[in-house]
Write a structure and sequence with these properties.
The protein is an all-alpha fold and 399 residues long. It is 64% helix and 0% strand. Helix 3 runs parallel beside helix 14, helix 5 packs antiparallel against helix 14 and helix 16 crosses helix 17. The two termini are 39 Å apart.
């Protein structure tokens, strides 16, 4: 008697996650869009209080948990790469775009181009959305990529915008806010290096919480900003990822030498939500920019929403094109996409074949694991091929 479920039922086993997972970056982008829809059309739902508000409208605790879990994966040996990656992101996402916009300002003046002022360009281009970065790298990045979220803590706020417009001395980095952003990471590093068991327990955390805090991030985005921002805001939003994500991609490829995984740099091409208030802050420090504040604020708000969608989609497209749209931790790969050596995370990919051969020569039955380290269900094609190989090996040994 055949008790196997029909094919249609098999396809319906994961109708929600399966749909999101088929879309590049979908486990983050779809909840983000849903959150923006709910936040725009039904904000009262998010204000019910208790667990409803805590789960759907407060993403910060879950983001902090991802940061803590990321810190637990960082060892003293990997701190250097995290610092190097952070520096490359700041160079590609903040310094290079900012200097180019300033150069444009010297050429065309503060009015900018196409109704987009230099103030709006700087407030949009010189910062990044740390939540989007964490969400994407939590699924497709390494622990080094996730640890480099610190770049968002550095370029967040109006500090770099003030520097770029020549308002020297009118801004400063709030050290207490910067410290508050990195304390969970530091505590995670300490705990993870003291107790490696906790490191393994916390490893799945990013994949678990990403859809939830992505929804929470979306609730803070007002879709109506696109309508009020008009075409200029849409144009600005569509430029963010190709321009600033592109420069970060170049930093990933040529400075960090990430090879096929360099496409992940595009996900830095976003605009942080709190940059919406940057034009007003700049105008309060320098009255020359008061005439641009109203339009620039709406344009930046539009860019926040559009870049939050385009950045992960473009990054995922580049990774998929290069065949690296996968979790490098699960695949046993390092920051450059190379197989881990023995001892880095158990048995590295390069050593699977040798390990399997020694197990067969000892007469033991191979574990039900595929070459990527993932379990193989009995009866599957992979398991059948694996068992056939074992039988052939045993026969040849008996001869």
């Amino acid at each position: 008697m055949n008790d196997a479920p029909p094919a249609d039922l098999k396809q319906l086993r994961s109708p929600l996650y399966g749909l999101m997972d088929r879309i590049p970056g979908g486990t983050m982008v779809i909840p983000l869009i849903l959150g923006a829809i709910v936040g725009t059309t039904a904000p009262a739902f998010l204000e019910l209080g208790s667990f409803t508000t805590a789960l759907f409208a407060t993403p910060m605790p879950m983001m902090a948990l991802v940061i803590f879990a990321t810190g637990m994966q960082i060892t003293p040996r990997s701190i250097g790469p995290v610092a190097g990656t952070t520096g490359a992101i700041i160079l590609g996402k903040t310094l290079v775009p900012g200097l180019l916009v300033v150069g444009l300002g010297f050429t065309v003046g503060l009015d900018g181009l196409l109704g987009i002022s230099i103030l709006a360009m700087l407030a949009t281009f010189d910062n990044s959305n740390g939540g989007i970065w964490l969400a994407f790298t939590g699924k497709y990045g390494t622990k080094t990529d996730r640890g480099a979220y610190v770049a968002s803590a550095v370029n967040d706020g109006p500090f770099f915008t003030m520097l770029f417009i020549g308002a020297a001395g009118l801004g400063s980095i709030p050290l207490d806010a910067f410290a508050a952003a990195i304390i969970p990471l530091i505590l995670g590093i300490i705990v993870g290096n003291i107790d490696h068991r906790w490191t393994e327990i916390m490893r799945p955390v990013p994949n678990i919480v990403i859809p939830f805090f992505a929804f929470g991030l979306g609730t803070g985005i007002d879709i109506s900003a696109i309508l009020t921002g008009g075409m200029t805001g849409i144009v600005l939003g569509l430029l963010v990822t190709p321009f600033t994500g592109g420069t970060t991609y170049l930093a990933y490829r040529f400075l960090l030498r990430r090879g096929k995984r360099a496409g992940i740099g595009f996900v830095a091409g976003t605009t942080a939500g709190n940059s919406i208030v940057t034009p007003a802050i700049i105008a309060s420090a320098d009255p020359r920019f008061e005439q641009y504040v109203d339009v620039a604020t709406v344009q930046v708000a539009t860019a926040v929403l559009i870049s939050a969608i385009t950045a992960p989609l473009i990054a995922a497209w580049f990774l998929k094109r290069s065949g690296t749209l996968s979790d490098p931790d699960e695949d046993g790969l390092d920051d450059r996409g190379e197989p881990l050596a023995v001892g880095a995370r158990g048995i590295g990919v390069r050593d699977v074949g040798a390990h399997s051969a020694s197990a067969r020569s000892a007469g033991g039955r191979r574990r039900a694991d595929g070459p990527d380290g993932r379990s193989v269900e009995p009866g599957s094609d992979r398991a059948h091929r694996r068992d056939s190989d074992d039988v052939d090996s045993t026969r040849s040994g008996s001869r």
